[in-house]
Write a structure and sequence with these properties.
Elements: E1 11-13, H1 16-29, E2 30-34, E3 53-54, H2 56-65, H3 69-78, H4 82-95, H5 97-103, E4 104-109, E5 114-120, H6 128-136, E6 141-149, E7 152-159, E8 164-167, E9 170-180, E10 188-196, E11 202-204, E12 212-214, H7 220-235, H8 238-250, H9 255-260, H10 285-305, H11 309-315, H12 322-336, H13 339-358, H14 360-365
Parallel strand pairs: 3-5
Antiparallel strand pairs: 1-6, 2-4, 4-5, 6-7, 7-9, 8-9, 9-10, 10-11, 10-12
Length: 366
């Protein structure tokens, strides 16, 4: 059993009002407690710290700051007796007591009395409400979706006046993905994506410039300037997004070409299954041949197996382009209701589109 976790709830929003209510409620619930304010750093026999429980990430961060790293976290989770697990963590706390009191603070959900993170005393708190408000002040946006868990926020915003057609009746708008976390597990992060009005999926399209982030450190004035620059830099790349999407529409969907050219495909749902049950050593010719065949079949079937009603209506079981493949899988990801799977597939689809744009000539000639 080890030290028990307090389960964390996932909240969702699909319009601006519900999004702001969600993040403002989170702001009111989260507080920072410097460890220097506490007399003794010690877990009780039930695995709690001054009566507060831990979320999974909270315990991971706490044991890391205590000096035990991944080993202490693993032991705290796997030791069957809770009191014994607490004593093991306490040994690390005793050894690093002065460092912890001088440098660290807890991030606590005061509503549930749960420790959800542990950060440096120099940590720059920039709330999810502040981040969203800054972006909304730069244009007119609609909220596609917002997902919040333990201060970890993921929001999709779509600009109202940014549409262009990839085909007759198929309009795409510029979208901006915002990610932030004020418990020490993430930076302020922006990325662009395509939003198809025909459906509710967002296809991520990334480039080196589009993947922008700021760590939660620095003087307030300088930090605020970095946030402004982050938003402006992201918006400046809309034309790059548009061009890469158009290129992906022009490149035919040819599974054998994608496999042979080394396309980034490890994000596909069945990717790991392509090597299961292959007989023989991996370096033997027959094993390599079998792996190629399975990979080819998996790529060919992916946009047919993992799709949605809009993609099926648009091209049925015959995806014509890289864009169609990415759109089908993005729509599937959105329909599953699994935030982690959705993020993985949407970002993978964007990597594929970005890769295809960089190899346009080779792929068109193949």
């Amino acid at each position: 059993m080890g030290i028990p976790f307090t389960s964390s709830e996932t909240y969702r929003a699909d319009d601006l009002n519900s999004l702001m209510q969600m993040v403002m409620a989170e702001d009111n619930n989260v507080c920072y407690t410097p460890l220097s304010n506490l007399k003794e750093l010690k877990l009780s026999s039930d695995g709690k710290f001054y009566g507060a429980g831990f979320s999974e990430n909270g315990l991971r961060a706490f044991t890391n700051w205590a000096g035990g790293g991944a080993h202490a976290y693993k032991v705290a989770c796997e030791v069957e007796d809770t009191e014994l697990a607490a004593n093991i963590v306490n040994a690390y706390l005793c050894k690093n007591n002065d460092r912890l009191k001088d440098k660290a603070q807890l991030v606590v959900n005061c509503n549930t009395n749960t420790i959800i993170g542990c950060v440096s005393n120099r940590y720059r708190d920039f709330s999810n409400t502040q981040f969203i408000s800054r972006v909304l002040g730069t244009g007119r946006y609609n909220v596609v979706e917002g997902i919040l868990k333990d201060t970890k926020l993921r929001v999709k915003l779509v600009e109202e006046e940014s549409g262009w057609e990839v085909a007759k009746g198929d309009t795409i708008h510029n979208g901006m993905l915002l990610r932030n976390d004020v418990s020490g597990w993430g930076s302020l992060h922006t990325r662009l994506f395509c939003f198809r009005l025909k459906c509710t999926n967002g296809m991520m399209v990334s480039t080196k410039l589009l993947d922008c982030y700021i760590k939660h450190y620095g003087l307030e004035q300088r930090f605020n300037k970095k946030v402004e620059d982050l938003i402006e830099l992201t918006k400046q790349q809309y034309e790059v997004l548009k061009e890469r999407t158009r290129i992906s529409v022009s490149i035919p969907f040819k599974p054998h070409v994608l496999v042979e050219e080394g396309a980034p495909l490890s994000w596909l749902p069945d990717w790991s299954n392509r090597i299961h049950l292959i007989p023989g050593h991996k370096y033997q010719p027959e094993a390599r041949s079998e792996r190629y065949t399975r990979t080819l079949e998996m790529v060919e079937n992916a946009p047919r197996k993992y799709t949605g009603p809009v993609a099926m209506d648009a091209f049925g079981n015959n995806p014509k382009s890289i864009f169609h493949m990415a759109s089908a899988l993005s729509e599937y990801a959105h329909l599953q209701g699994d935030a982690e799977l959705q993020e993985q597939i949407e970002e993978g689809a964007g990597q594929l589109v970005s890769w295809a744009a960089g190899k346009k000539e080779e792929l068109l000639a193949a």
